[in-house]
């Protein structure tokens, strides 16, 4: 059995997580922490199931996974390579993209 692929966070995805936290923390610090934990816990499933997301609506080789949180959730785009899974972006479903 092959080794699971590591998760690699792009600079943009890290900035997205910071933006999510900075938006939620002043309103509800516990919710901000829980939100980031929920996102991380879901994405930590990718090494054992890299195809769990659907093909991205952006096209190409990217995939996206919907992470439910609150009354809505977050969309995370990622790409699977032989040597790792790169998390590309994370945004709220209600954000304009």
Descriptive overview:
- This protein is an alpha+beta fold and 97 residues long.
- It has a single domain (7-92), classed as RelE-like (YaeB-like fold).
- The chain contains two helices and five strands, in the order βααββββ.
- It has a five-stranded mixed sheet.
- The N and C termini lie far apart (39 Å).
Q: Could you tell me the number of beta strands?
A: 5
Please state the second-level CATH architecture: 2-Layer Sandwich
Provide mean pLDDT, rounded: 91
Contiguous runs where pLDDT drops below 50 for at least 5 residues? none
Question: Which CATH class?
Answer: Alpha Beta
User: Structural class per helix/strand content?
Assistant: alpha+beta
What name does the CATH topology carry? Answer: YaeB-like fold
Entry summary:
The protein has helices spanning 11-24, 29-43; strands at 7-9, 54-55, 63-69, 72-81, 84-92.
Question: How do the helices and strands line up, and which of them pair or pack?
Answer:
Layout: E1 7-9, H1 11-24, H2 29-43, E2 54-55, E3 63-69, E4 72-81, E5 84-92
Parallel strand pairs: 1-5
Antiparallel strand pairs: 2-3, 3-4, 4-5
Helix pairs in contact: 1-2
């Amino acid at each position: 059995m092959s080794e699971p692929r590591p998760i690699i966070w792009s600079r943009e995805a890290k900035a997205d997580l910071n933006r999510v936290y900075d938006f939620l923390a002043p309103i509800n610090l516990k919710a901000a922490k829980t939100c980031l934990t929920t996102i991380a816990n879901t994405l930590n499933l990718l090494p054992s199931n890299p195809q769990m997301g659907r093909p991205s609506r952006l096209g190409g080789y990217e995939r996206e996974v919907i992470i439910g949180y609150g009354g809505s959730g977050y969309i995370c785009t990622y790409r699977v390579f032989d040597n790792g899974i790169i998390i590309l972006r994370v945004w709220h479903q209600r954000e304009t993209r």
